[in-house]
Amino acid sequence: MNLETIKAEIEANVPGCRLQLVTNASPCAQHSLLLDAEHAVSVATYLRDAAGLRFDFCSNVTGIDWPQREVSEKVKVKKLVDGVETEVDEVKKTIVPGYLEAVYHLFSMELKHGPVTLRMCTQDRETQVHLPSLMYVWRSADLQEREIWDLYGIIFDGHHDLRRLLMWEGFVDHPMRRDYVDPDDFEYEPTAHDDVLRRAQLHAAETGGQ
Amino acid sequence: MGGEKARVGVDIKGPMDEQLKAELSKQGIFTTSLQELYNWGRKNSLWPLNFGLACCAIEMIAATMARYDMARFGAEVFRPSPRQADLMIVAGTVTKKMAPQVIRLYNQMPEPKYVISMGACAISGGPFKQGYNVLKGIDRFIPVDVYIPGCPPRPEALIDAFMTLQKMIDEQHLTGAGRPRHLTAGRPSEFPVPEFGAHDLEPASNPDIWQAPLVQISTAGNDEPGDD
User: Do A171 and B198 touch (CB under 8 A)?
Assistant: First the structure.
């Protein structure tokens, strides 16, 4: 299945949807489709129901945390150096704001093809973390979307029962986020090293000795 | 039959002479003490609580089946209710979400009760020690009698731990300083159940029964390549 033909087909049949082909440059070449949140449910329903596609099985849903990062690229800039205009390499740094992403893997049991990978991005990592739930398109997304809410903090609008799955009610963090700080209960490690050693030394300094 | 004669040389106030006991048993008279009878009864009908937490539980099940046959040691009846159990085998990873339930089950068991901490996870968190949702050892909340290392320990190891526990019970005196916990007034048989906090269990451990072992960090962390 060629993802570009799928993309063209969806664009022809779901009016107004904004799809983006995310290419994967690595040898596996598993490209994916980035959906816009507004039309995600109708695109998903089309993928499931269209005669030539029939993606009736959502095998996996997962989350990704993209923290804010700095991208530096080399730009050639023309500058006057000693009165002569020359090209100088300059490093331009831009800050890409962080966001969260949900990834869906689709297969067709009926037509025996796949996978097709769908992505959806939130606007940021703090407050604009809503995405539409695809649970009513593929029921297998039910628990997995709950898990993503639990571990990454994406709120799936329209999910029928968005409770924490692995952690308890009342837990406030999302442990799979990059900036999660786990509770400091490394009081004891027989062969401390790296991070654990640093923490143990910190504990030792606090308790004075030992 | 000769009541007057038999009493000669026996100090009925003190513990019975082992030699005399052996002599009497040769003559077909079985003597025992309350302590021996009590310990014999306790150690040979240790009924475990029927629950498992992870892969160690599979080894525990194997230990009860025909090949390893825990029934030989009086532990064939796994009780589905804590009210009827004597022994808690903490077999597997204790997640922080599960820990309060495990402690609540322990509290519901009647005395005398014992705990075997089976496998690396129940001892210390094991390979998941640095996970966000794994309790770093059940002994932070309840007292453990026997630890079995292994990942998971083989059924033989569980049987060995079981026999170790039986030996411990058999050697206990019912009076004096070394008497079991349930015969010591004032020692707790229930332990506080931690609450689910915003980031961790609250409290994260019970300081009355668990203190972090003191480790010499300067030597423990000194694993840089040497000068020599």
Answer: yes
Q: What are the residue ranges spanned by the domains of chain B?
A: 43-175
Of B199, B193, B174, nearest in space to B184 by CA: B174
Q: Which residue has the tokens 């007057």?
A: B4
Contact B199/A210, CB-based, under 8 Å? Answer: no
Q: Which residue intervals of chain A are DSSP H helices?
A: 3-13, 40-49, 141-152, 194-207
A125 vs A209, more confident: A125
Whether A185 sits inside 8 A of B199 (CB atoms) is: no
pLDDT score of B192: 92
Q: What is the pLDDT of residues A141-199, one digit of tens each?
A: 999 999 999 999 999 999 999 999 999 999 999 999 998 888 877 666 667 777 777 87
pTM score: 0.81
DSSP-derived pairing of the beta strands A113-121 and A32-35: parallel
Architecture of the structural domain at B43-175: 3-Layer(aba) Sandwich (3.40)
**Nearest residue in chain B measured CA to CA from A172:** B198
Handedness of CA A150, A152, A158, A159 (dihedral sign): negative
Domain ranges (residues) in chain A:
3-66+99-176, 180-210
Q: Is B130 on the interface with A (CB under 8 A)?
A: yes
Query: How confident is the model over A23-33, as pLDDT tens digits?
Result: 989 998 889 99
Q: Which of A143, A177, A180 is nearest to A163 (CA)?
A: A143
Say if domain A3-66+99-176 classifies as CATH 3.30.1330.10: no
Nearest by CB to B196, from A168, A190, A196: name it: A168
In DSSP terms, A61 is beta-bridged to A104
Residue B46 to residue B39: CA distance in whole angstroms:
11
Q: Reduce the DSSP state of residue B202 to 3 states and report it.
A: strand
